[in-house]
Amino acid sequence: MRPGERALRAQLAFFRDFIRNQAEQGDPYANVLGVPENPYPHYEEVRARGRLYRSSIGSWVTADHKLANEILRDRRLGVRKANGEKLPEIMSFDNSLLGADPPDHTRLRRVMTPTLNPRMAGGWRPRVKEICSRLIDDILAEDKPFNLMTAFAQQLPVAVIADLVGIPERCRADFFHISRRITPLLEGVVTYEQTQSTEAAIKEMTDLFVDIIALRKADPQDDMISRLVPLVDEGTLSMDELVPMVTFVPLAGSETTVNLVGNGILALLAHPEQWQLLVERPELAAGVAEETLRYDPPVQQYRRIAHERIELAGHTLPVDGELAIMVGGANRDPQVFPDPGTFDITRDIGADTLAFSAGIHYCMGASLAKLEAEVAFEALTARIPRLRRAGPIRRSGSFIIRGMREFPVAAR
Ligand code: HEM
């Protein structure tokens, strides 16, 4: 047994038992952490307990849209502890944007913005169309039932992100395999074996990106890494910051977009009249992306830490008090969205969904992700108008990322 293994195993087992126990006693947040097939009734229970409630797990929890929005924009809260210490669960992202508080976050985000912003997203449309078209050609050529996740939804964002970030063709298979091993990190409650495999994968990913950065330095192209490398030479950015920053982008942009496409198609097939409406009116594809982000968002919750003692919705949070924001619940808050449990691709959502967060950590890839999903929905309904379910789905087992591993479908 490795040093510390016994203690870590015991700690993880204790945590799992504790959560199970609290869930059995009816705590809705503990129930969410247990990754139920359908978390939405538990979010309703969270909201029924007030705008903010203290879970028996220790965190303060909200599914209230207005409060969630305020919390995400509140500068008295951050993503690290008040003394700047990182949380153990975000170990791989400690130097990425998502794991940084101001002033580091402000500087890193400014550096990244020219390489990833809403303006550049539109330019990707022809390339995204081409990738979707090629993937559907392959699916139709096979002429048999297929797993929508592996045959289509996973392929699209990985191809786009690899081009955007500048992952050379010959490193892409490695990148894909390693990132699959990192995703359990997003699942929160993990086993000892998963922590070991994830740690090893993070190290391999870092090594891979160190190599890619060296390649791009020697032979710059029109991509994110090539544009950021000169900043290291100028002294604006350190190598210790560049590596996690560029490693994080493909992870942030693929696991999420994959599930926006998957969850959207699942909702459309569960509501055949909505599928038919899209077949007849392909211009509604952007609306499908927006409604899926509201109705079944790929990222279901965010966490924030109080950097000072604060009063919030009748509660007093101490320094380092932890807030869990149930986005899946906030996006179904009836105060903001009438008839929130109905999937309606013609709904006028405006800027109200919190699926990409809000405030300083607002997703930098939101426009690109929406474009990818829009083109995907348009292409699938146009070329496979009789798409149908062909077997039971298997979910990915995370309370943060909601999506599927297996989604069997048939083209006719
Ligand atoms: C449907 C797809 C996507 C969803 C649902 C999503 C969601 C999110 C959310 C919720 C956050 C902030 C989390 C928090 O506040 O704690 C975030 C941050 C981020 N996302 Fe996305 N994302 C998606 C796609 C992408 C894509 C395609 C990219 C890159 C090309 C990307 C890059 C980023 C980056 C760099 C951040 C960090 C921003 C910061 O901390 O300042 N995301 N995303």
TrEMBL record:
It comes from the Bacteria. Keywords: Heme, Iron, Metal-binding, Monooxygenase, Oxidoreductase. The keyword Iron applies. CDD domains: CYP164-like. Gene3D superfamilies: Cytochrome P450. PROSITE patterns: CYTOCHROME_P450 (PS00086). Coiled coil: none annotated. GO terms for molecular function: heme binding; iron ion binding; monooxygenase activity; oxidoreductase activity, acting on paired donors, with incorporation or reduction of molecular oxygen. InterPro entries: Cyt_P450, Cyt_P450_B, Cyt_P450_CS, Cyt_P450_sf. PANTHER family: CYTOCHROME P450 YJIB-RELATED, P450, PUTATIVE (EUROFUNG)-RELATED. Belongs to the cytochrome P450 family. This is Cytochrome P450. It comes from Streptomyces boncukensis.
